[in-house]
Design a protein that fits this description.
alpha+beta, 4-stranded antiparallel β-sheet, 4 strands, signal, Gly-zipper_YMGG, transmembrane helix, DUF1236, DUF1236 domain-containing protein
């Protein structure tokens, strides 16, 4: 049984990571898929490996740090005199409240930013998830 479980995890990890490895920008997806597949296999067997690989790939991709050009753009933007204040802790992986107005990044519309609690925050505009907090 353990041999089948390990073999299933190895196969699932190979299936989910091999096609992604051709693109260097998806390191988070590769790590997430491999880790998710192995964890899923341990918890749920072959089906768990498949589900874990998919979930891990999505999570790994979602939290990749933004490209340097995005960070530079946000760092160069002035901080407005009145910034948005939220009670929630602003941290990577957590969503901002939908009441926060996001400013799109012209060079890369897959990211947006806001100044929240006097901090520049880079966000995934489709989910409002914080991708990076700049000091």
């Amino acid at each position: 049984m353990k041999l089948n479980l390990l073999a299933s995890a190895a196969i699932a990890a190979a299936l989910f990571t091999s096609p992604v490895m051709a693109d260097d920008d998806n390191d988070g997806a590769v790590t997430g898929a491999a880790g998710g597949a192995v964890t899923g296999a341990v918890v749920g067997g072959p089906v768990g490996a498949v589900v874990g690989g998919v979930v891990g790939a999505i999570a790994g991709t979602a939290l990749d740090p933004p490209p340097r050009k995005v960070v530079t753009y946000v760092e160069q933007q002035p901080i407005p005199s009145e910034t948005i204040v939220v009670e929630e802790v602003v941290e990577v992986g957590k969503p901002l409240p939908k009441t926060v107005v996001l400013t799109p990044i012209p060079e890369d519309p897959t990211y947006a930013y806001a100044v929240v609690n006097k901090q520049r925050v880079i966000v995934d505009p489709s989910t409002y998830t914080v991708v990076q907090v700049l000091n």
